[in-house]
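Tutorial, part two.
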Amino acid sequence: MTVTWEEAGWERLAPGVGRCRLPGWDCTVGLVVGDGSALMIDAGSSLAEGARLRTQAQALAGRRVTHLALTHAHFDHVLGAAVFAGATVLAAGGAGEVFERGGEELRADAVRNGLDPRAAENAADVLVRPGHFVWGPTVLELDGGPDVRLLATRGHTAHDLVLVVPGDPAVVFCGDLVEESGEPQAGPDAVPSHWPAALDRLLGLGGEDALYVPGHGAVVDAGFVRAQRDALATRFGVS
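Running the prediction step on this input gives:
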């Protein structure tokens, strides 16, 4: 039995498209629903959080999640992925190495940021390696749903994945290339020299009228993304 976005605690952005802000790290996850498919965007920070998201997504879509796209390999976006059994898991090309060696790194980072150590260990032990990697501009054809455009780029990490859902309005899931609730975080795996150009490409795909969903915080418009692009260029000394 399906429920409304509001009943599930989600924000509806366009027909068949919504997102949810998670407690703790204010991380955003997304959902795109088709007649015969359901695409989840990011998976939460633990197996318990992922399980809650799976239940909500299934209620919203009226079916199991068929696809899971991971915007980048940070713990608050990927540690819930193992609960989405049977889903096709996608990530940016090159991220496979991060997932192969990254269980311990993700666990340690999660604990440093306040996740319960046992929850972090349990999730890291069953860390899911994506089965499909996006290298160039790609279209994901959802059964009975929109053709979602995928872009692999770099900035927040070396392997960021952006998803553009066409429609009125178009909805762009930016991952942590864009953050609204705080200054964009640039850790040791960031590629600052490429970050402004990544946002230029993102704006080119979405356009002026799109809704841009950041990895953390409220939905923003093209003007916000452009201002953040300019701030990042100044911050990192990139022309």
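Residues 211 and 221 are 6 Å apart (CA to CA). In part three we will examine how such features are distributed along the chain.
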